[in-house]
Write a structure and sequence with these properties.
This protein is an alpha/beta fold. The protein has helices at 22-37, 62-86, 108-116, 134-144, 178-183, 191-200, 214-219; strands at residues 2-7, 41-46, 91-94, 103-104, 120-123, 149-154, 159-160, 172-173, 175-177, 203-208, 226-229. α1 (22-37) links the parallel β1 (2-7) and β2 (41-46). The radius of gyration is 16 Å and the shape is globular. The structure holds adenosine-5'-triphosphate and the ligand O=c1ccn([C@@H]2O[C@H](COP(=O)(O)O)[C@@H](O)[C@H]2O)c(=O)[nH]1.
């Protein structure tokens, strides 16, 4: 089974923190290793909330702020590759936005060959365009690697009728469709990403990545977090 894991940048720093926390990265690496050892083929789209989010950079044009955000995703990818390889996970980074020795340009043939050869794939540089987020990139890359599911690995344990970090009376919704998610203006992923999932027929499960074993349990079909299904 092929899975695209959308990792929040904060998985590398700890919630609400910036930079890299080696303990968090070591935990993240062990969670990915567990699923690789079970035979799952893994692609990762990593965000950059631990470094830069374009919208948070004041005094810059949005285009330039987003370019800085995009470069943050590349930094995270290079950081993760180093940690993954120390733990014996063969890893390749794909991106369209930089020319670095550790980064390959995206091609369907090289993606397929890397998956077939047991590499973990890290897709960096989002969609390559400003005004998007890595959620939308996750959907595009999931389609390109023929993933059966996207797991959004985040800091909340599923989808709620409103943001559970802001509203203590938020109610969890275990199962919904993309149309329902868009109608309810659910913000756990951006609307562009939900619309693309609906169009491409890709399922998303939202889990709390900070709960040990949650990724593997989700892939084994346990009913954890929330699932969003094509209509
Ligand atoms: N209805 C909702 N249900 C669940 N979570 C929600 C909802 N609305 C907003 N959120 C928020 O969405 C956030 C999930 O996004 P997260 O920070 O993981 O992703 P990201 O922005 O893609 O990552 P990054 O840290 O890399 O920018 C959570 O912090 C959660 O509080
Ligand atoms: O397609 C994309 C993806 C991302 N960006 C910029 O990068 C940062 C970090 O991504 P997150 O998804 O927020 O973690 C984002 O805030 C944008 O500034 C982009 O421009 N295009």
């Amino acid at each position: 089974m092929r899975v695209l894991v959308k990792l929040s940048g904060e998985a590398l720093s700890g919630e609400g923190r910036k930079g890299f926390d080696p303990e968090r990265v070591s935990y993240l690496t062990s969670e990915i290793k567990k699923v690789v050892e079970e035979g799952y083929r893994v692609g990762i789209v990593v965000g950059a909330g631990n470094l830069f989010r374009g919208i948070e950079l004041r005094g810059l044009s949005r285009e330039r702020a987003d370019q800085i955000g995009l470069l943050g995703t590349v930094m995270n990818a290079v950081y993760l590759k180093d940690h993954f390889e120390r733990e014996g996970l063969k890893t390749k980074i794909f991106s369209q936005i930089v020319n670095l020795p550790d980064v390959e340009s995206v091609s369907y043939d090289s993606i397929e060959s890397a998956i077939e050869n047991g590499f973990v794939l890290i897709f960096a540089g989002g969609t390559s365009n400003p005004f998007f987020t890595t959620d939308t990139a996750a959907v595009l890359r999931a389609k390109e690697m023929k993933a059966q599911i996207i797991v959004k690995a985040t800091k909340v344990d599923g989808i709620y009728d409103k943001d559970p970090k802001r509203f203590s009376d938020a109610r969890k919704i275990e199962r919904l469709t993309f149309s329902e998610a868009m109608k309810m203006r659910i913000e756990v992923m951006d609307a562009e990403a939900f619309a693309l999932c609906k169009k491409l027929g890709i399922t998303v499960r939202v889990i709390n990545f900070f709960e040990p074993g949650s990724l593997l349990r989700a892939l084994k079909g346990e009913n954890i977090g929330s699932i969003v299904l094509p209509d």
